[in-house]
Amino acid sequence: MGLMPLIMGASGSGKTTSIRNMNRKTTAVFNVAGKPYPFKGGFDMSIKTNDIDDIITILKRNTTNCYVIDDSQYLMSFKLIDKWNENGYAKYTEVARDFKRLVDTVIDYTSPDTIVYLLHHTEVTDDGKVKAKTSGKMIDNWLTFEGLFSIVLMAVATENKHLFITQSDGTNTCKSPIGMFDNPIENDLAMVDKAIREYYDLAPAGLRKKEEKQTKKENGTVTTVKELPR
Predict the structure, then answer these.
(1) What's domain 6-226's architecture?
(2) Using one digit for the tens of pLDDT, what is the confidence trace for 40-91?
(3) Looking at the whole model, is its pTM more than 0.70?
(4) Which residues are CB-neighbours of 167 under 8 A, at least 6 positions away?
(5) Which residues contact 158 (CB under 8 A, 6 or more apart)?
(6) Burial category of 223 from C-beta neighbours within 10 Å (exposed 0-12, middle 13-18, buried 19 and up)
(7) Are 73 and 120 in contact (CB under 8 A)?
(8) pLDDT digit string (tens) for 213-226?
(9) Domain locations in the chain?
């Protein structure tokens, strides 16, 4: 059962910039919007796709234990744009169901030391609260979006630095386990990843804990051990 932290923030708040220190060889990045990175270099496992089924297929392969889905809100909005001429509410139900399938894939099909980060835009509610952006009230009626995640951080840009907010002050939907982070913290997803893995005693990014698979033979049991490369 993998983890799926939500990193939300307005455009320009530093969500994508926060991945600059992640391991470029062992971090798989799904580039949903297909935009250039805001720093030099890229990732060996950079996948341009806005199709949830493509992402689900790749996650089930368990190729690595660290994934980033950049601009994840577009997985919803792009699909609605493609279905703009369809009448009725069925398209909204389908979008909500698809996003739930993505969450279920991380929970049910990835290894226990896998973390899949969603980098997601924000919106402001009618009462002034900052929350993760969805594709309308129909989606919100089907999903309490932040309720799907135990870690919700918010990227913010101040006058001279970018930060992550880790706990809510009542004006946002941020949350994180007790003692995992200070508040606020530096905008660095590599540091966030390290803190989460240490808190839950997970293998470091790019290296899995030993997974033993036993194969019974007539003359005994053969055990094979699999590890991801550093």
Answers:
(1) 3-Layer(aba) Sandwich (3.40)
(2) 999 999 999 999 999 999 999 999 999 999 999 888 877 666 766 777 777 7
(3) yes
(4) 174, 175, 176, 181, 183
(5) none
(6) exposed
(7) yes
(8) 433 344 444 433 33
(9) 6-226
